[in-house]
Write a structure and sequence with these properties.
globular, 6 helices, 80 residues
């Protein structure tokens, strides 16, 4: 699994856990809904660290907490 896939999974899991929709996440994070939906789009491969940080700020969590999961520790190598 790639880091992009895990970021998407983490964002969706946090939305489910907090019972909010991606659109609501965009609003509380101070980013546009199109930015969230672009991040969630499987055709897009890049993830902006700034966007992840804004999502963390909106969810009142640190970026360390966001990435502190077993899934991020076991990522496949990105360099092929």
């Amino acid at each position: 699994m790639t880091i992009k896939d895990e970021v998407v999974n983490r964002v969706l899991a946090l939305c489910k856990e907090r019972q909010i929709k991606p659109n609501e996440l965009a609003n509380i994070s101070g980013i546009t809904p199109s930015t969230i939906y672009s991040l969630l789009d499987e055709r897009r491969r890049d993830v902006s660290v700034i966007t992840v940080k804004k999502i963390c700020d909106g969810l009142a969590m640190t970026i360390g907490e966001f990435f502190s999961t077993e899934e991020f520790n076991n990522l496949d190598q990105e360099i092929k």
